[in-house]
Amino acid sequence: MPTPSSEVLVIGGGVNGLACAARLAAKGRKVTLLEASEVVGGGAGERDFAPGYHAPALAHLTQGLDTRVVEAMALDRHGLAFHPALATTVLSGEAESLTVRGGKTSGVDAAAWEALHRKLSAFARVLAPFRQMRPVRLAGENRLFGLARQGLGIRALGKDDFRELLRMVLINVHDVAEDELSDDRLKGLLAFDATLGAWLGPRSPNSLILYLDRLARGADPLLPKGGMGALAVAMGKAAAAAGVEVRTGSAVEKIVVEGDRAVGVRLAGGEVVRVGLVVSAMNPRTTLHQLVGAAALDAGFFKATGHVRMRGAAAKLHLALRGTPDFRGADLKSRIVIAPSSEAVERAFNPVKYGEVPELPVMEVILPSAHDPGLAPAGHHVLTAIVQYAPHAPKAGLEAARAEMLENTLNVLEQHSPGLRSLVVQAELLMPQDIEARFGMVGGNWHHGELAVEQMLFNRPTFAAAQYSTPLPGLWLAGAGSHPGGGINGAAGWNAAGAILEAKA
């Protein structure tokens, strides 16, 4: 028999699902959150990948958790605290490492880096409010008003700066690096940060806009005290305190549609939960193609959602180390980036276009145990890295590609930290296929849909679902596949809750 339940049901207990559920509950809605795994957090959680070694489930930093989420959910009261913002150490072969903290660095390019960072940060500040807005509908009589309202901040730049912003939004990050910088290490860092988690290289058109989006999220990467799992725990506690009923171990098998309206869900065990409103923080294609199905959706809309590009090109490495690695004297509490130049980042991208593994991948390395020793046995460490680029459709097959990717990644790490291989107790490499299987990220794409100019704002995930509502009454989207996209941020879920409350759905 169907089970009566909450007024609102949120599917998915990642950062966006938790943020959406908590905001709705705080406004008096009766909310149940369903999470398939045994703990909330999704990609922001934590797991034991080797006995005694605790690693981030997927994401190992947050680049700007939405301040509305932090403040409204009172996450500090639920145990969330951050280590000081991490500096970035850039490694490049035998060259001396370079430390970068926001707009400050040293060396011959210090002034050029500061000037470029200042200009790009100013553009990012203008774009940042868009992240907290529901995209305007480009139709009907409100079209011009909506565009004007959202464009006020941009127009305030002045004519010259506005022209420069338009030029840079449409340019690739490699050309910016070549025009503005002379130090290959800084060029490599700029190129790497712009393309992190994306299916494009530094020379790809419009790649600079992803760097502006990164700056719009926050100035410096942050690591929660106690590891990324502490963020998931704090958000889970905050959601429960707001009145959300959190049900873990509850995988949704189907969204129930009756009379052309979503009226609930059926769980994997057969239980039916009926509600007034269903909100999915899962991947939009999974939601619409697997949980809803073609029969309940307009054919054009169903087809359009199937065309949203979701290629993932990042692998996630976890290493259990029996000692302390030495990255040629680099600060182990910093974010270590191995991207010797913009050209090196491009060369790492080229093979994955053809389903092959790069010989010299580029990567972001964190040692969370350098901040929180309890994450590993005494004297040992956990190393976690985002490695680019990994083929999402390997020509040689998944296991062969995984073995080659791990070997090439360890070779690069050994070059920059001699002796590291001898410290490895256990290694785990998650390829894009593993990321899809474990976290529900179609294609292994961390953003539940590639961040690209044509897949942002009023086209995210598609034009017909860009307002968080869908053409199916009773069904809303609140995940990273909606505006403003992914990252450990919570903005999409928070925005979706706001749209639901405004609609009195």
Structure description:
The strands form four sheets. The protein has a seven-stranded mixed β-sheet, with helices on both faces. It has a five-stranded parallel β-sheet with strand order 8-3-2-12-18, with helices on one face. It is globular, with a radius of gyration of 22 Å. It has 505 residues and is α/β, with parallel strands linked by helices. α1 packs parallel to α9 (228-241) and α7 crosses α8 (208-217). The protein has helices at 15-26, 67-72, 110-131, 143-155, 159-169, 173-180, 184-195, 208-217, 228-241, 284-292, 299-306, 342-349, 368-371, 398-416, 432-439, 491-503; strands at residues 3-4, 8-11, 31-34, 46-50, 53-56, 88-92, 95-100, 245-247, 252-258, 261-267, 272-274, 277-280, 314-321, 335-338, 362-366, 381-388, 424-430, 475-477. The mean pLDDT is 91. The two termini are 26 Å apart.
Summarize the structure.
The chain has helices at about 15-25, 65-70, 110-130, 145-155, 160-170, 175-180, 185-195, 210-215, 230-240, 285-290, 300-305, 340-350, 370, 400-415, 430-440, 490-505, and strands at about 5, 10, 30-35, 45-50, 55, 90, 95-100, 245, 250-260, 260-265, 270-275, 275-280, 315-320, 335-340, 360-365, 380-390, 425-430, 475. It is an alpha/beta fold and about 500 residues long.
